[in-house]
Design brief:
The structure holds two protein chains of two kinds. Chain A is an alpha/beta fold. Chain A contains eight helices and eleven strands. In chain A, the strands form three sheets. Chain A has a five-stranded parallel sheet with strand order 2-1-3-4-5, sandwiched between helices. Chain A has a four-stranded antiparallel sheet with strand order 6-7-8-9, covered by helices on one side. In chain A, helix 6 packs across helix 7. Chain B contains ten helices and twelve strands. The chains are: A alpha/beta, B alpha+beta.
Chain lengths: 215, 449
């Protein structure tokens, strides 16, 4: 998918971001200080840079004007409104404060990539091809008839693939409401997806957590 | 009502009261004197008339027996009428001659004043010619009244003029005098609105300027106090922010890797990496919490004093840090002259350990850290990167790091020197820092004070 540079001085957090982004199919490079971040950004092509504000050497705020308009998401422990506004005003595409949730990170990265058109229009695994633009799913070349909610559910699972999504989260993403009670709707739709696409092995139930599409 | 209004009104009333009482007393006294003078002259005149009448009457008797005395009386009456004097001769209560044109009643041998038809007269009655006749002398003294009127007019006009003049003068003088007070009031109003930079005017040497002076002194004090409070609040805010930041980093890792373990489709190897990070970051949190607890421990003074050998302290620290120094390629040099101080051994060793560890971190490969003790002093010297004077003022603040971007590659939470300072303070010792950027830093802990 996308090629992402992670500029973060804290090894543990840098690796955390890298591992999570790798799950959903992004390739990541890491820089641990401002100077190497600048060098890498100028030497290679990146679709997105995840930038810590407090980088040794050159701070994230100072770095941003030299990044040739590559989309930037700030990740920082500074949660003050002032810093947020400053970051966004400098041209950052988004702003994530520590500590963050994996899903939040993945979603924000996805949103920024989609806005900058660096996201692919289709996704394939096994004998299944999903066309996001036409909202169609093909299995062995023939179209599978999915209902709109089933398609949305499949998209959510694909975008957060290899990550377990709780029923509540799926309800929130696909059905667009915070609703505690009706998680069975999710179960029913998951069953339908498994049956229609024959992905019992891929679409797993994770114990006490939810569902995960493993690709 | 303003103070100067009150002063004005009260002074004016008092003054007018005194002035007018004075003038009135003077007027009445003058009038009394006039009356006395006029009465005296009337008495003298009456006496004169009596004497000359008695003489004439006697010579008439001597010359030709008893002529009609009323003729003599009439000639006297006529003569004096032109001078505004009326006479009345009585014999045995019966009027022999009178040119008095109005009713009156008067006892014998008396003097009185009376107003008849708005004209004032003086009446004097005496016996003449050895009691043969009674003479009543009546003189028109209306000039007394008119004089009094003129006098009063003059006095009242004077009083009025003086009063008005005084009222005006007093008004302007008091208003002028109250100007500094008014200015002071305006100053306090500005302060009330939050402007502490204003100062009162300190002109002159009267009470107002003295007040202004002490007022300004008070303002300066308050201003200082507020500023120091602001700085304190800022420092506290900074501490909280730094602490939040310092806690957030490990928290983010722990949370993130926990979530990763929970949700991600991961290999065994990845799970182990995640778990290792969780353990390592938890240890870091523990370290921060330990130091915070140590800080609290020192602050509450719960420690035991014993005789601590500084030499042992130095050797012990060098021993504990020798491996770390070796890893960093730094040489540790000790220079001990035996000396001992009274203190808590654990805390003092914590202090020296922290200072030495910082010195090692500040050095490049091949650097040298010298730890020495002599006569109530501990000295840690390094030839590392040093600090600017600006950085020196902040280094004992909790969570402060000399690198603005807070490189944590050297480990530590930025709490070490804050703790050191507290330990030193608990031992009544003074930590002083001398540093030159790129040359090195010298830290002295002095226990002599």
């Amino acid at each position: 998918m996308a090629n992402i540079l992670i500029a973060e001085d804290e090894m543990s957090i840098s690796n955390l971001i890298k591992m999570n982004l790798a799950l959903v199919g992004h390739t990541c490079a890491q820089a641990f200080d401002g100077n190497s971040a600048l060098n890498m950004a100028n030497s290679f092509h990146f679709d997105l840079i995840i930038l810590d504000v407090m980088l040794p050497g050159i701070s994230g705020f100072d770095l941003i004007p030299h990044l040739n308009n590559v989309p930037v998401i700030f990740v920082t422990a500074k949660c003050g409104l002032e810093d947020r506004i400053r970051g966004l005003r400098l041209g950052a595409d988004d702003y994530i404060t520590k500590p963050f949730e994996t899903l939040e990170l993945v979603t924000r990265v996805d949103v920024v990539l989609r806005r900058t058109k660096a996201v692919s229009h289709s996704f394939e695994f096994d004998d299944i091809k999903i066309d996001f633009d036409c909202k169609k799913v093909f299995k062995q070349g023939t179209e599978v008839n999915l209902r709109p909610k089933e398609f949305d559910l499949l998209c959510a699972l694909v975008k957060n693939r290899n990550l377990a999504l709780s029923r509540e989260k799926l309800l929130e993403i696909v059905w667009d409401y915070d609703y505690e009670g009706d998680t069975r709707t999710v179960d029913v739709h998951i069953q339908k997806l498994r049956k229609k696409l024959d992905i019992e092995e891929r679409l797993k139930t994770v114990y006490k957590t939810g569902y995960r599409l493993e690709v | 009502m303003r103070f100067w209004h009150k002063t004005y009104i009260l002074t004016l009333i008092l003054f007018l009261l005194c002035l007018n009482t004075g003038i009135m007393t003077l007027a009445v006294y003058t009038y009394q004197k006039n009356v006395e003078t006029i009465e005296a002259s009337a008495t003298a005149e009456q006496h004169y008339i009596t004497r000359s009448f008695e003489n004439d009457y006697q010579s008439m008797l001597n010359a030709g027996g008893m002529a009609n005395p009323s003729l003599l009386m009439q000639s006297y009456g006529n003569h004096y009428e032109s001078k505004g004097i009326s006479l009345c001769f009585e014999k045995d209560e019966k009027t022999v001659f009178s040119n008095i044109k109005f009713e009156y009643s008067l006892s014998k041998n008396s003097l009185m004043q009376k107003k008849i038809d708005d004209v004032r007269y003086i009446f004097i009655s005496t016996e003449i010619c050895n009691g043969e006749y009674d003479l009543v002398y009546v003189k028109n003294v209306s000039e007394l009244d008119s004089e009094f009127k003129t006098l009063m007019t003059v006095y009242v006009l004077t009083a009025l003029t003086v009063s008005v003049f005084l009222a005006l003068c007093l008004f302007f003088v008091l208003k002028r005098l109250s100007v500094p007070l008014d200015k002071l009031r305006l100053t306090t109003e500005k302060i009330e609105k939050g402007d502490f930079s204003v100062r009162a005017e300190e002109k002159g040497k009267d009470e107002f300027s003295l007040l202004a002076r002490s007022f300004n002194a008070m303002l300066i004090k308050i201003d200082e106090q507020m500023r120091s409070l602001e700085i304190d609040a800022e420092k506290k805010q900074m501490l909280v922010e730094n602490m939040a930041h310092e806690l957030r980093t490990p928290l983010t890792s722990i949370y993130g890797y926990g979530e990763y373990l929970e949700k991600a489709a991961s290999t065994e190897e990845e799970r182990i990496i995640a778990a290792k990070y969780i353990v390592a970051e938890t240890a870091r949190l523990k370290k921060i919490s330990d130091i915070l607890l140590d800080t609290a421990y020192v602050r509450e003074n719960r420690f035991e004093y014993t005789e601590v050998s500084l030499g042992d302290l130095v050797s012990d620290t060098v021993y504990r840090l020798s491996r770390k120094a070796e890893e960093n390629g730094v040489t540790l040099v000790e220079n001990v002259t035996e000396s001992s101080v009274s203190g808590d051994k654990t805390l003092l060793s914590m202090l020296l350990y922290n200072l030495t560890e910082n010195a090692i971190k500040a050095c490049k490969k091949g650097g040298k850290v010298k730890i020495s003790c002599a006569h109530y002093q501990l000295v840690v010297e390094d030839d590392g990167k040093g600090m600017t004077p600006e950085q020196l003022t902040h280094i004992t603040e909790p969570f402060y790091r000399t690198d603005k971007s807070r490189s944590r590659s050297e480990g530590g939470a930025g709490l070490g020197l804050a703790l050191c300072k507290q330990i030193a303070e608990a031992h009544n010792a003074v930590i002083s820092f001398e540093s030159v950027p790129e040359k090195g830093t010298k830290i002295t802990v002095d226990f002599t004070s």
